[in-house]
Amino acid sequence: MKAAVTDRYGPPEVLKLGRLPRPLPEKGEVRVKIHASTVGRTDTATLRAHPFFARAMTGTFRPKIKTLGMDFAGIVDLLGEDVSDFDIGDRVFGLSPDTFGGHAEYLCVPAKGAIARIPGDLPFHQTVVGEGAWYAEGTAKLLSEGMRCLVYGASGAIGTAAVQLAKARGAYVVAVVGTRHVALSKRLGADRVVNYEAEDFTAIREKFDVVFDAVGKTSFFHCRPLLKADGIFAATDLGPGWSNILLSAWFGLTGSKRVQIPFPKDAPGFVRHLAKLMTTGQFQGVFDRRYPLDDIVEAFQYVEKGQKTGIVVLNVT
What we know:
Blueprint: E1 2-5, E2 16-19, E3 29-39, H1 41-48, H2 55-58, E4 71-79, E5 91-95, E6 106-110, E7 115-117, H3 130-140, E8 148-152, H4 157-168, E9 172-177, H5 182-187, E10 192-195, E11 208-213, H6 220-223, E12 227-235, H7 243-254, E13 259-260, H8 267-279, E14 287-292, H9 296-304, E15 311-315
Parallel strand pairs: 8-9, 8-11, 9-10, 11-12, 12-13, 14-15
Antiparallel strand pairs: 1-2, 3-4, 3-6, 3-15, 4-5, 5-7
Helix pairs in contact: 3-4, 3-8
């Protein structure tokens, strides 16, 4: 099978297209012939081993994971033993958060893992929505009906997902974006949209239960005027000068937990939940552009610019 592979850390240029043996499903697994995947921040960071201490998990000197890609969508083409959840020919989507492998023509995943049938007749390239949504869900789970949430950077894969997941939980949502994304945030259901290019979002005279930095470009101290007395600043990034991780450790010790980096959990349960939201129309992917697998280097280069709107899709088959 064709796959994008690397045997060292570095810039996108270290990725090469190669041929690998087709994997065979083990007991309890299904093999998916992949039609679409994504290139996201996790892929680019893993390729560069950023931050450096991530090497403790991904490989000290060389990457343990040779083929990246957490999202996948395709068709089940082979079943392992004792699989009753899926049939050959099922159209499926999901996540491979532990082993990646989406940037290849075939991938084996546990049948009871983070995989679900594609709702309705959605095309494959519109169902690779899991990675950004999964990271956003860690913060969305802090919310319940009637709570107030501000999403800073509500135009990327994580931010657009955060707006929708928060609304699905019944929260009041303010989206902070640049001029060209104002209409998008309104379409996704934000109750108020603040254009940070036209006004200071920290001076809007509203207080929030949760302020979520979805892009790693602001800080707790900058956003503190927006927080209620018991409000939480949540982020998906280490923050300027690693402030988020340092403050989350400090507030964790004091018991207030005012700064959190909510790590996503239960990928299988979340993918099934996401399938339901997609079925009811409460969640839809926001897509920037699509690249063929042959242009994997260009796809990584584009994502590293940090200017994408929503999801960058990789057409595998």
